[in-house]
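User: Fold this; tokens only.

Assistant: Input:
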Amino acid sequence: MSKWSRPPSARNGMRCILRVVLLPTGEVLQASVEESSGDEAFDNSAVRAVFMASNLPVPEDNFLFEKSFREFTLLFRPDDLRL
């Protein structure tokens, strides 16, 4: 995710699961930690990255949006860190 600012505590293998809620425009309405990595700075940086990536691409079809895009979980796992 190019909008992510890596905190100094981030390490390969870390992951958190976020719950994301979008508006029909693709704007992020809510992003929250559903499963923590155990590192608050890492989790908070993942949430900030989702908000900074707003507006996300969404389908024009309202039924498809409501079914698959309105609310979803996101696995945030930056395994390509070069430390």
